[in-house]
Design goal:
Blueprint (H helix, E strand, L loop, with lengths): L1 E8 L7 H17 L4 E7 L5 E3 L2 E3 L7 E9 L2 H8 L10 E6 L4
Antiparallel strand pairs: 1-5, 1-6, 2-5, 3-4
């Protein structure tokens, strides 16, 4: 089994307590549905800073990260199939799926 990182981009924030509860329930259900394949539920993240040879930019980069999760899957296709159920897709966001390389 290979570890993959799901990097979340975009999505919208719920505006009411009721919407927040619905979104949290959707995320919890999706992660529970992955069972033991979900090895680190991850977390949302705040605005990032981009460090380059030109200095530090506080703009979050060209495609700001909004959160992450780490899963185990047989291959990239299986990991992408798991990502297709991610609730961020319903909120207009996207999921990047990348293998975590063993060092």
């Amino acid at each position: 089994m290979t570890k993959f990182i799901f990097a979340y981009h975009g999505g919208s924030m719920p505006e009411t307590d009721e919407e927040r509860a619905q979104v949290m329930a959707a995320w919890q259900g999706w992660m529970q549905g992955m069972g033991e394949a979900c090895i680190d539920m991850g977390a949302p993240v705040g605005m990032s800073q981009t460090v380059s040879s030109a200095g530090v930019a506080d703009d979050g980069g060209s495609n700001p990260l909004s959160g992450y999760t780490i899963v185990e899957a047989a291959d990239a296709g299986a990991a992408c199939n798991m990502a297709k159920g991610c609730p961020i897709l319903d909120a207009g966001g996207s999921v990047e799926v990348a293998p975590i390389m063993e060092m």
